[in-house]
Amino acid sequence: MSNHFTGLSLGPPLGDQRLDLCDLYAFQSPADDARTVLILNANPNADALHPDAVYRLAVDTDGDLLNDIAFTFVFSEPQDGRQTVDVYLARGAESRDPEPAGEKIFSAVEVSFTADPNILRAGDITFAAGARSDAFFFDFDGIKALFDTSGKRNFTEPHLGDLGGTSPWTGQDSNLTANVCSMAVEVPTSMFGAQGPIRIWGRCSVRDNGELRHVDRAGHPSVSSFFNTDDTKLEYNASEPVHDWDRWLDQFVHLLGHTGGYSREDAIAVIEAEGTLPDMLTFDPALPARYPNGRTFTDDVIDYRLGFLTKNECPPSGLSPHTDTLDEFPYLGPPHP
Q1: Using N-to-C axis directions, what is the helix angle for 244-260 and 301-310, rounded to 10°?
Q2: What does the DSSP assignment read for 25-59?
Q3: Do 139 and 317 touch, CB atoms closer than 8 A?
Q4: Any idea what the Cα angle at residue 285 is, between residues 282 and 57, rounded to 5°?
Q5: Most CB contacts within 10 A, which of 104, 114, 274, 277?
Q6: If phi over 0 gives left and psi between -120 and 50 gives alpha, with beta otherwise, what is residue 209?
Q7: Would you call 141 helix, strand, or coil by DSSP?
């Protein structure tokens, strides 16, 4: 659920799983803490990605909430179960262009749909794309029990008081054998040229009548799922982080008032403390990666988010991280059969 579906209808953007951004990760390389790993996962079907889409990993390095570095991934039309991807690296103003821009650093790379990743290097940048085991863990039936006891799903009303003191959790990981299509890059941390935290976000755009339509975005885990509504999710996914505070603060404050009884002042304080807005993943490479400083595979982001929403009234799910992740690139394990 981290971003495996968006809004109350829980459907993928435009009804197309290929356009669904699932999760965003940022952490120091386990093999070399002077390098940073960025991973953007999409498509919970873990098959070919959309050939008319532009997938992007963008980084703000100076705190102005605008892209300073962008990795853009453009996939070919799949043929006979195979697909390739071109990767562009843009800097400065070029990184803010919605179209693929900058230097093409990898060309026609084979996307891996088998257990063996196709890992390539260009200078000091490492890259791989393909089907991998999904590291995200959550108890979907427990979430439904927490928010759906009346038979109508409403993420603004957790039903903690309606459960009779019992836990909503089943103890079952709904994602234990799930896969995703992963886009992973590893770079020297010095590449960012930052003196403090960087901010990272993902975007998926699809070509519609010759124009790029922004259909999904990824930043903080679970924010898009819990804070969106069916009426606002299209606008939210098309919007830019630099506008988040002005456009979305009131909606976020309103939701926190319902889910945790926050006053407006308290809600703004916790949003500021986490950096929930702008919806970009903050990562200070000088500090250990653990959400909300970056995100690793062991971070229980659903427990974190539900605690955030309910002022820590929601009990933890008790789930454990997946054990099939790797200590070497591309870090996510091989896909499940």
Answers
A1: 80
A2: EEEE-SS-TTEEEEEEEE-TT-SPPPTTEEEEEEE
A3: yes
A4: 50
A5: 277
A6: left
A7: helix
Which of the two residues, 270 and 162, has the higher pLDDT score?
270
Burial 243-279 (b: 16+ CB within 10 A, else e): ebbeebbeebbebbeebbebeeeebbebbeebbbbbb
- The answer to whether 115 touches 127, Cβ cutoff 8 Å, is no
**HEC assignment per residue over 303-324:** HHHHHHHHCCCCCCCCCCCCCC
- Summarize the confidence of residues 174-183 as an average pLDDT: 97
Query: What residues have CB less than 8 Å from 72, skipping those under 6 apart?
Result: 54, 55, 56, 57, 87, 88, 89, 90, 100, 101, 102
The residues, ordered by sequence, that sit 6+ positions from 12 with a Cβ below 8 Å of its Cβ are 5, 6, 19, 20
pTM for the structure as a whole: 0.95
**Cβ–Cβ under 8 Å, residues 185 and 126:** yes
pLDDT digit string, tens, across residues 36-54: 999 999 999 999 999 999 9
Q: At what angle do helices 244-260 and 264-274 cross, to 10 degrees?
A: 120
Residues in the chain: 337
Helices (H), the chain: 140-147, 223-227, 233-238, 244-260, 264-274, 301-310
Structure confidence by residue, pLDDT tens digits, 223-254: 988 898 888 989 999 999 999 999 999 999 99
Phi, psi of 218 (to 5 degrees): -140, 135
pLDDT tens-digit series, residues 280-331: 999 999 999 999 999 999 999 999 999 999 999 999 999 999 999 999 999 9
